[in-house]
Amino acid sequence: xxxxxxxxxxxxxxxxxxxxxxxxxxxxxxxxxxxxxxxxxxxxxxxxxxxxxxxxxxxxxxxxxxxxxxxxxxxxxxxxxxxxxxxxxxxxxxxxxxxxxxxxxxxxxxxxxxxxxxxxxxxxxxxxxxxxxxxxxxxxxxxxxxxxxxxxxxxxxxxxxxxxxxxxxxxxxxxxxxxxxxxxxxxxxxxxxxxxxxxxxxxxxxxxxxxxxxxxxxxxxxxxxxxxxxxxxxxxxxxxxx
Length: 242
Hints:
The chain is α/β, with parallel strands linked by helices. Helix content is 39%, strand content 29%.
């Protein structure tokens, strides 16, 4: 059964969603991140994906207080990403309650450093962030595209012991136009033993149902909840079976 992971993206301590990763195309939602996290927990979710968008842009963690507030006041298993560039950043995230951290840009620009973190903190606590635009890896808050193709990029890290991969199709993110099912199927065909977290484009329950039927282990979604495209209670009942 697919694992359902709601997302909270943060700018200036507030819940936001971007369109295709464009900071100039953001929607700010009512309610604090903690209020939203509590709502998710009350509805039955067990996991939460937090992205520090200020951190991603600034290249260091910014909204650490939001992370701490959520982990201190809920029992959600939180994975945290955005702006993690140093070992101290990782320790800071863990010290403030994160169970896992998502690392994106560093895995492209400083492969040896990422591998040292994988060894230090363990594969179970590290998520490889693979943000994709037109089949190529994108870094630095999606502002810079690289020449790295997704499959060889993942092949390198899976061989090094990576277990958790968060793949976001940037062209789909925030668009509510459906997920890149072919992309995720292709990844799973190459790497059937990874815990792949699909992200980007979820427009409704049918998208999540299709991912589930395709055997995708996990899915992150946000805007479809905030914009009322998904009824949380129905989703959990129909997909998670409780």
